[in-house]
From TrEMBL:
Ranges for domain Carbohydrate kinase FGGY C-terminal: 273-463
Keyword line: ATP-binding, Glycerol metabolism, Kinase, Nucleotide-binding, Transferase
SUPFAM superfamilies named in the record: Actin-like ATPase domain
Pathway annotation from the record: Polyol metabolism; glycerol degradation via glycerol kinase pathway; sn-glycerol 3-phosphate from glycerol: step 1/1
Signal peptide (UniProt feature, chain positions): none
Descriptive protein name: glycerol kinase
Enzyme Commission (EC) number: 2.7.1.30
Family of the protein in this entry: Belongs to the FGGY kinase family.
Organism: Cyphellophora europaea (strain CBS 101466)
Length: 513
């Protein structure tokens, strides 16, 4: 039986392919969870949608599923004191203010239907000033392009806009709105880590910026933008109006990558985390002032715990193809039966035998931003074995991670001392050892790698006093961590990185003719 005094925090982890609900104790251990996958909708090449109602339904079912498992362990539902939300970022939903019903499917962050629109926007006067104001350059990712697409292409959205009834939200806003019961309470909020992905928010003030709204030619009297409130807040996110947790307050909200940084306890300037999932996302805490990148990175809000604390900022770098390259070796090339066996295959050789694999399946993201590269394998000889190619596949993500860290050091003018890691590909010991060798600093992999969900629970728990301050979280999820330390001399890793850089140069322009 759980002790009477013990309290727990729930975490809604609304990801790109599944929704989950986890219940954490004060030590940061997940004691119960439930996960549901939902439909991926691809109406045309490059289009990617989710059904907003199916997502709400999946979240509600996850909450009830996890609560049932929690009770089976003898815990009382009343010991769950608050709930946090973490979500896929940029994914956009629009709904009608009068009905609270969605006007179309959600457009997912990966969706590229706004390519032509983005090209047009880039030509507009002031396009080059956007990054200084909002931290992001124009691309298909931010929510603003998705909103413009809705207004231009979905008659119901256009009509709601003309009538001044169009509500815009990222997934956190949609979840908070519906989980509070929709228009009855009309909870309409977002946190700065999510708002910093829209291109509407001034990254310096954490407020909507008229010049950004003007640039996108959106009429602020016709579209409703959610109120930006701190990532940890006792009242603004309302409370659950359905499920077994009816009445439990929602008190934390963070975009998924920010949540992972918080879950890794990257609270202080100079700390960084890398999540090696399908793609890989690095966030580097730069402290209380935003750093606008001049080296191919994005600026984002790490978290804002409100009260008398200052918001913290991060530099972000993403790699399009990370774990998916390992999956490619399994699914497309049949090198092994599973991702973990690719790592085992790579262990059969001592090094990549001179093979360098630039896994630019859809160009290269940060810090290179090369659109016209495609995947290219260099250095194949009669000596090359499958193990060499497997190893070169794992190395590709590690090399790109080093390139991003180099850019982060240049932008922030500080050198990182340790990298915290999570995500599917971090399960590979070999990959993490290679990573440490290439960046020359320790790589710290916690035993419990549900860091994204933990981050949202931490935000929610801070708001309700489960943890009085971030100092109390020092011991959370430290036991059983694996630390990988560099095992090769710097000259060696520099030489290998120089070879990688040459391969990146040579992969440019393949799509050009
Ligand atoms: P996402 O959240 O993006 O769906 P996950 O964090 O679940 O991703 O990670 C899944 C990815 O991790 C897959 O692409 C898979 O190839 C890779 N992966 C999982 N286990 C291993 C392993 N042992 N070695 C290398 N890659 C792995």
């Amino acid at each position: 039986m759980g002790s009477v005094a013990e309290s727990f925090i729930g975490s809604i982890d609304q990801g790109t392919t599944s929704s989950r609900f986890l219940i954490f104790n004060k030590h940061g251990d997940p004691v119960a969870s439930h996960q549901i996958e939902f439909k991926q909708i691809y109406p045309h090449p490059g289009w990617h949608e989710h059904d907003p109602l199916e997502i709400i339904d999946s979240v509600e079912k996850c909450i009830d599923g996890a609560v049932a498992a929690f009770e089976q362990q003898g815990h009382s539902v009343n010991s769950i004191k608050a709930v946090g939300i973490t979500n896929q970022r940029e994914t956009t939903v629009v709904w009608d203010k009068t009905t609270g019903e969605p006007l179309y499917n959600a457009i997912v962050w990966t969706d590229t239907r706004t390519q032509a629109l983005v090209r047009r926007l880039k030509l507009r006067l002031g396009a080059d000033k956007l990054q200084d104001l909002c931290g992001l350059p124009l691309s298909t990712y931010p929510s603003v392009g998705k909103l413009l697409w809705f207004i231009e292409n979905v008659p119901a959205a256009k009509e709601a806009y003309e009538k001044g009834n169009l509500c815009f939200g990222t997934m956190d806003t949609w979840l908070a709105f519906r989980l509070n019961g929709g228009i009855k309470r009309n909870v309409f909020v977002t946190d700065p880590s999510n708002a910093s992905r829209t291109m509407f928010m001034n990254i310096h003030t954490l407020k909507y910026d008229d010049s950004l709204i003007d640039f996108f030619r959106v009429d602020p009297s016709k579209v409703h933008l959610p109120e930006i409130v701190p990532s940890a807040d006792k009242t603004k996110y309302g409370s659950l109006a359905s499920t077994r947790l009816t009445g439990v307050p929602i008190t934390g909200c963070l975009g998924d990558q920010s949540a992972a940084l918080v879950g890794q306890k990257g609270f202080n300037e100079g700390q960084a985390k890398s999540t090696y999932g399908t793609g890989s996302f690095l966030l580097y805490n730069v402290g209380e002032e935003p750093v606008i990148s001049t080296h191919g990175l994005l600026t984002t809000v790490a978290f804002d715990f409100g009260g008398n604390t200052k918001p913290m900022y991060a530099l972000e770098g993403s790699i399009a193809v990370a774990g998916s390259s390992v999956k490619f070796m399994v699914d497309n090339l049949g090198f092994a039966e599973s991702s973990s066996k690719i790592s085992a295959l790579a262990e059969t050789v001592e090094d990549s035998g001179g093979v360098t694999f630039v896994t630019a399946f859809s160009g290269l993201f940060a810090p290179y931003w090369i659109d016209d590269a495609q995947g290219t394998i260099f250095g194949i000889t009669a000596y090359t074995q499958r193990g060499h190619i497997a190893r070169a596949t794992l190395e590709a993500t590690c090399f790109q991670t080093r390139a991003i860290l180099n850019a982060m050091e240049k932008d922030s003018k500080k050198a990182l001392t340790e990298l915290a890691v999570d995500g599917g590909m971090s399960n590979s010991d070999l990959t993490m050892q290679i990573q440490s060798n290439l960046i020359g600093i320790p790589v710290n992999r916690p035993a419990m790698r549900e860091t994204t969900a933990l981050g949202a629970a931490i935000a929610a728990g801070i708001a309700v006093g489960t943890w009085k301050s971030i100092d109390e979280l020092r011991e959370v999820n430290t036991q059983g961590a694996t630390i990988f330390r560099p095992e090769i001399p710097k000259e060696n890793s520099d030489k290998r990185f120089a070879r990688w850089t040459k391969a990146v140069e040579m992969s440019k322009g393949w799509l050009g003719d």
